[in-house]
Amino acid sequence: MKLHDYVAWYARCDGERLCAIQNDREFSFADLERCSAQLAHALNARGISAGQRIGLLSRNSIEMVITYVACSRSGIVPVPVNWRLTSHEVGGILDDAGAKLLLTQSDFAGQLSAGGLAADILDLGPEGDVVYAPLYNRLAEFPGEYNAVEQSDDAVLYQMYTSGTTGFPKGALLSHAGVNANAQQNMTLLNHCFGKGKRCLLVMPMFHAGAASTVIGCINSGTTMVIHAAFEPRAFIDSVHSQGVTIINSVPAMLQAILQLPGIREQKFPQLQAIIYGASPIAADTLKAAIEVFQCEFFQGYGQTESSAVISFLDHADHLKALSGREELLLSAGRAVVGTQLKVVDADGRTLPPGQTGEILARGPQLMLGYWQREKATAATLA
Which residues of 32-65 are buried (b: 16+ CB within 10 A; e: fewer)? Predict the structure, then answer.
């Protein structure tokens, strides 16, 4: 199964179901099917074909979702890039990937052109307008149907760069099979929060593995995404109320900022079912305050870019245990997701008993194929 297979199915069976909302813009699965086909044609018309790389530099947007799906259909590999990087750093990643094209927004395009990037920069439009307007004004020239390129489930869905502890970023190759497996693993715990009629608030940057995985999970389950270009506490809370958000993907620092909003402790969130957080542990005081305010379940996801996103979850029951006297649980990464094996080993590879510090080894279907053009690093990371 590929990402575009899910889009095609929802478009055919329930095309008017909302796929995404951003500001006042609503976008259905039928819209996603049509626009992703048009973008696939547009990329092919510019000489980009299956297996080639394109850069994607953008704040969160519906168009990022379209790009992921268009690339899935055409076999083109998107390389999402952190927009907080300098033009020199962006250029290094694009050069390493061999990107033939960079899709970006107007407020980045000038800076990147001045930086002398080798990639052909395609200006997608200013953030805040109908995003990517210049490109999408031309998409109407292309057909709204596209015969997906034949590719195996092990074909690369996207190439995501991570520095880890080694300094220079490495491109983790994440396959259709691996990313979809991780989405299914996550749904084992979170299935009750996703699906028709559910809405997921996306404020985490979609160039990051955690948010990209959430996008995949929403598409696969037919969940409506409520997309914010970036995090702003008041807009975050307003959307939870006005859009009927049922699940949120966040980090502890965001939750702390929200808890500082005036009047937040007097508000009610009856439709909110769960908050997923990651990137760092949560302090007991923050967790207690957040549960009192939101009255919902909490899940901590743990993983790396190399694992599509998640290898373990600390579930809601463990969060409640932590507040009942076992505060040390909040420093735990939880239990392995279904189909994943974890162990901690010493420097010689010997398995360590519980409570000992060592290196975490993981085995599961969600792991990357390897690092782009780095055989030694791949061999050192994957056994």
Answer: bbbbbbbbbbbbbeeebeeebbbbbbbbbbbbbb
